[in-house]
Each structure stands twice: as structure tokens, then as C-alpha cells.
Amino acid sequence: MKLFVWSIIQKALPLGENLQQRGLLSGARCKRCNEVETAIHTFFRCPFAQEVWKRVPLNCVVHLATLESFTDVVVALKRTFCLPPTGITGTILPWICWVIWIARNQLVFENKPTSPAEAATKGLRLAREWSSAQSSIEVIKTPKPRGTHSRRRMQLTVEDPLLMTCRSDAAWDVRTKRAGLAWILTDSKGSCITQETVTQDKINSPLIAEALALRSALLSAGNLGFPKLRCFSDNETLIRAINGDMHVKEIFGIVMDIKQLSSAFIVISFSHFFRSQNVETDGLAKQSLSSSLYLDPFVG
């Protein structure tokens, strides 16, 4: 969360004002109220943000909308805390700002509204899970190897409840130019959160299909409220293009979409793994494509 707050302070988030200053956007208005989309407006002055903050049980009143900069807000909230029995230790600021940011992205990219009550509840839940995780660090003692006199090794392990893993894949039919896209999202324990498939027509290559599958997976992941995401694909070209190791004209636009969607997460990574590690997602993609070809009367 420190990185997210740092991004706000450094004007690194793709807010309307920041994009306009970089010459990337002609308009810089808040989609909810049509005011200039600055950080202080988005997170504190917008009527939606104010309603979210009203639902946060702080120990004292802080007039956030009257402050002039995000840094001023950080200072003002430094000594505040959430009243019991929320179970939250530490500042609530990054968590509420995070859910406001998620709600903003869902509205901008998917036209999906979020109520202030939903956002506040999600922010409090994330903060509580984080606080709980910090107190559940387990110290594991490893036995000292025989014949050595080294000190006992100590390893800290903790399951991160804020981390989600994404595996995506695609199956492509060269004759019909149709693709089956699939993705599986799992939590830090490996339990499946959701698995989804979709078919798309007029896809000119398997690489484009793979890129579209990952983009669809990010759209789905962004709705679940996890701030950390690990993405895996068995297409090495796609991963290298996303990570900036190579330029692929064929998927340039989709890669830009993926990078834009990535801004919804505090921490995100894109990694390549072997096809043998992606059997389940591969099967879903092939099944989706096969079913669509079988059911389509125009495909002979």
C-alpha cells in the first residue's frame, strides 16, 4: 500500500489531470460529477468519496475535503484510527483510497457503478485482513543439520490474503478465425475464486488470442478487489511484450490496454510458465472453442 500512496503523491496514477498534463487526454473530468479529476478531488472531494469516508468509523472528525493536497491528508490522518470493534490497526487511508480507485476504474472502463456503502465495507475488510495477516506470522524452526555448528535458521512465512493469481490461455481455430479464451483466478491458498471462458470471432492469430485472454482476465480480476495480482501465461512472446523486453506490432494496442488495466493494482507481475503448468486453463479454452464451433450452424 505504500507504493500506491507514493504513486498518488508523485502524480503517477492515470487520473484525468495527470494524463492531461502528459498530453495523453483532452478531457480531465470526473465521470461522476464532471469536476476536474485531481487526486484530492477523486479521493476526498467528490460526492462519492465523501459518502465513502462518512462510513469509516474514525476516532475523530477530519475535514478531508477542505485540505489542499494529498500530503496534507496523510499528515491529518496520521494520528487517527478506526474505532473498535473493526479490528483494524494502523491507518485506514490507503485502503479507503484503494477501494475508491477500484470503484473509479470500474465506472470508467466498464460503466459499472459501486455504492459508497459497498466501497467502504470493502475497504474496511481489506484493512482488517491486512491487520490480521500481520499478527499471524508464523515462525518455523528448521532443524540444525548434523555435523554443523551453524545457528538455527528462522524462516518467516505468512499467507498474503491480498494476493491473487491469474492463469490465462487461448485456443484458436485457423479456419474460422475464432478463439476460445479462458482464465482462472485463485487466492493465496490456491483455491479457485473464479474461472471464466468466452469466445471471440475475427481473431487473426493465436498470439492475439492469448493477449485478449489475458486482457479479459485482468478485467475480471479488477472487479474482485484484490490489490496484488500475479499473472501467468505460457506464451513467452506476450509476456516479453508486456514487460517491455520486445515490441510486437501485432498486439501493441492490446498490450497498452493490459498496462492501463494494471494500474488498478498496487502490485502486479507478469510471468511466463510452461504449457504443462497450464493444463487446466488450456482445457477450458479448448472446450470453449470446441463448443462454439459445434453449436454454430454456420460453421461446417
Automatic annotation (TrEMBL):
SUPFAM superfamilies in the cross-refs: Ribonuclease H-like (SSF53098)
Pfam families, sorted: RVT_3, zf-RVT
Positions of the Reverse transcriptase zinc-binding domain: 1-53
InterPro entries: RNase_H-like_dom_plant, RNase_H-like_EbsB-rel, RNaseH-like_sf, RNaseH_domain, RNaseH_sf, RVT-Znf
Top-level division of the source organism's lineage: Eukaryota
Bilayer-crossing regions: none
All residue ranges annotated as the RNase H type-1 domain in the record: 168-287
Single GO term (MF): RNA-DNA hybrid ribonuclease activity
Protein name: Uncharacterized protein LOC108836659
